[in-house]
Write a structure and sequence with these properties.
By secondary structure, this protein is α/β, with parallel strands linked by helices. It is built from 20 helices and 21 strands. The strands form 5 sheets. It has an 8-stranded parallel barrel with strand order 9-10-11-12-15-16-18-19, surrounded by 6 helices. Strands 4-6-5-8-3-7 form a 6-stranded antiparallel sheet, covered by helices on one side. Helix 14 packs antiparallel against helix 18. The N terminus is likely disordered.
Amino acid sequence: MQSHLDNGTAGVSVGTTSDLTKLPSGAIGSWSGAVLPGFGDVAAADAAERIRESCVIVQDPTTGHLGAAFGGSLVLDGSPGSIPALAVLPAMYPEWLGDRSFAETHRTRFAYVTGAMANGIATTKLVIEIARAGGLGFFGAAGLDLDRVEAGISELATTLDPEGLSWGSNLIHSPNEPALEEAVADLYLRRGVRKVSAAAYMGLTPSIVRYAYSGISVLPDGTVHRPNMVFAKISRPEVAGHFMSPAPAAMLDALVAAGKLTADEATLAATLPVAEDFTVESDSGGHTDNRPLAPLFSAIQSVRDERQTTFGYTRPIRLGAAGGIATPQAAASAFALGAAYVLTGTVNEACVESGLSDAGRQMLAAADVADITMAPAADMFELGVDVQVLSRGTMFAIRAKQLYQLYRSYPSLDAIPADEAANVEQKILQATFDESWAATREFWLERDPAQVDKAEADPHHKMALTFRSYLGQSSRWANAGVAHRQLDYQIWCGPAMGAFNAWTEGSFLASVADRTVAQVARNLLEGAAVVTRAQQLRTYGLPVPSHVFNYRPRPLG
């Protein structure tokens, strides 16, 4: 007797026999159930979507075709009415993607993080929404004055701490303003900010080391308690090595001498890495080395494994993946590399909770994967460091590069040829050099008066600060939606944005108004789980149609 299944593939049959004691090679037993197994493309697609159920890979003993079965029972040998079973895939959930210790340590539902986009683009609202959706968000404190940073972390603590939800804030390396970096670290320690995203570091500084080790102790049961957790955002293996090692003894001794660490904290610090969570940042928006994720992740994995062995750490060092995480396939591939968590950036900038203006979000929604370019960074202008920005619909990158070339070519504003100076004043600064410097001077007198003293003694530094004012304001114009400055919008953007737009085309997430940080997160993770299950099915021999690997967005609760 044969049962014919109408599941999208005509003519496929399941033979049932009264004797399956001789199972085919590779079988683990036999399966039987009230609902017949499915064969063909439709059945494979259904099996990939049903991630929350155990799935049995079965083989039609008559045709040899593989199919998927749900429910029923599995026995070790053949029995009447059963068919050979080749593998069992247990249920899986988006919550199980990544390293389980991440969720346990940071009290999240998902191994999912939203990045600390500077100038408040990662708003408190964004951080609150992703925390309530089961992830971990970092407030974009970089570029904000201390009062705004304190107001932001106060709001987050008041809102999320009573709910038992985790959150963090950004601590950015400020080579030109070390006092500001120290002041932010002081604020975080004073206000009990327990997680920071350490960004743009090229090495260790006393501020990040002090934050990392303040309050560490050994509990009565012998475990080490680290109240402050550093997420080191890393794009170079040599920098990863610094954060994966204990801080240098000389730096720890200096902090003890200055009264910023206790002797006991410094002694314990000598046995612990500076950070235990590392965001491996590949090609991304903003500060980036434009590295592809796979080789970069593998290289930093090697550094991690070497440091674990060298220092004999008993606590895990987790590696997360960032840069290009904008589709389920990208998230699934990051987890397959061994990522403990994934971090998203540019796609959240395009969400309604971000600090970017609606005009800026509309510009991001029109971006393709190639609509990006590199431009001078405001915070590291003199060093020639670049950031990756949107090129479509804005002339910021072209104009910022022009300013940097003038800075490299001339010793002062007065030395710039008259025709070039007029072009800069009229088209870029939209003010004379004197007017621009007056406004810049006023800004720095409030933020860091030493910069004004230096500029008035060094015309080249005066030029740098004047040009940096354009770079700094350009991102604020984009955030505020200043209409007459739209051609000057600086919008940090990586190629992930184009991939996200292509993935969401024709779905509810194509609409800017429907792009919420929670829906983006849930769809990326749900899709990553489906893609992972599809790959598992294919690995066990089930023919999986290609469209199954392109999970389509849908409203998720």
